[in-house]
Amino acid sequence: MANIQERKSADGTITYRVQVRLRGYPPQTATFDRKTDARRWAQNLESAIAEGRFFHTTEDRKRTFGEMVKKYIDEDLPLKKPHLQQDQKNHLAWWNRHLGDYLLVDVTPTIIAEARNKLANEPISPRTANAKKRGPVRMRANATIVRYLSTLGVVYSVACREWAWVNDNPLRKVRKPTEPRGRVRFLTDDERRRLLDACQSSFNNLLYPAVVIALATGARASEIMYLTWDRIDLGRGRAILEDTKNGERRALHLTAHALDTVKKLSDGRKEGECLLFRGAAPGRPVELRKAWADAKKRAGIKNFRFHDLRHSAASYLAMNGATLAEIAEILGHKTLAMVKRYTHLSETHTRQVVATMTEKIFSQHIQQTAPHEDTAGLDMVTSGLPH
Fold first, then answer.
1. How far apart (Å, rounded) are the C-alpha atoms in residues 89 and 152?
2. Coil/strand/helix, residue 368
3. Which label site among 154, 251, 303, 323 has the fewest CB atoms less than 10 Å from its CB?
């Protein structure tokens, strides 16, 4: 039943607070300037509940977009992996600046799409090494815009399913820009030799082991930098990754030179060290940026990032006959979508697989039919064909 209360403020303004309580539903409350509006709202709400048309829309009319973002940052973001928290916080700060004052009920797919376009057309000027200076103005890449939209989609999913602040996720109706094909930059044999030589003679003696492990296993830079000795099994030649990007446990297989390299690190390990690549500060990995940049310069390697060592490992696997499923498993991808960029590198192996299959299924048929061929008849048939 509806309960309407008249309220008088200090300046004499009168408002009407209506509350609807029905068994099986949480109390619904709203405030109006006119008693007629309060009665109409209560009647409509009671009818909607009786006819099964009621959805919990009260929260989206009371809560702002900014409140939703703040609640997510305070309660849910700390549960994310550390390397994801800062990125999502930056994404949400942008959305909050542009949509924070809106009531949730007013944040439609159209509003979000307009903000998406603004995000895409907004010039950004990244800072250079000198904090007071800024680099050249550029636009956000499509891949970056997709990440911003994905972060907001996660927030709305939580607000819809767990908080009941909204009835639906509006991001489902917002188009994401098309991402470019995945980058495939891998080292040629000569580039690999020059880079490894440069890393081996680096002023930082941890650069070479890190590069060797990256090339041999396809592990991400963060996975390598946070490898701990308690996860290394030298006897079985493997390292166990507990905290991966996709949230699943994965093993890095250490063989041949990679295993020997890790054994040398173990021999030089100081007592109490936890990380394989321990930095100056306890619990923090070594900083390799300067050493990496110097090694690339001395090796004459251009347009190459540390992450491209992972692409190099995947490319070498493809060129040596590994299937896409095997590459996905080694790299830690849940689906084949991320490794399809290496398809063209495995064409030689794929062709050989098809050739072997063809030869096997037709060889017996060819042997059986060869003695019975009527070559004379064949000559008569072909004699009339143009040469």
1. 10
2. helix
3. 303
Please report whether residue 196 resides in a domain.
Answer: yes
Sign of CA dihedral 90, 92, 93, 95: positive
Structural tokens at position 13: 């303004």
Residue 27's domain comprises 2-54
Span 189-239, pLDDT tens digits: 999 999 999 999 999 999 999 999 999 999 999 899 999 999 999 999 999
The answer to whether residues 48 and 103 belong to one domain is no
CATH number of the domain within which 77 lies: 1.10.150
Please indicate, yes or no, if residue 328 is contained in any of the structural domains: yes
Answer yes or no: do 149 and 266 share one domain.
Answer: no
**Which tokens go with 357?**
């299959």
Q: Distance from first CA to last CA of the chain, Å, rounded?
A: 95
Kindly list the distances between the CA atom of residue 112 and the CA atoms of 53, 63, 140, 333, in Å, as whole numbers in the listed order. 26, 17, 17, 30
CA angle 318, 323, 327 (to 5 degrees): 70
Whether residues 144 and 228 share a domain: the answer is no
pLDDT in tens, 126-154: 554 444 555 567 889 898 999 999 999 99
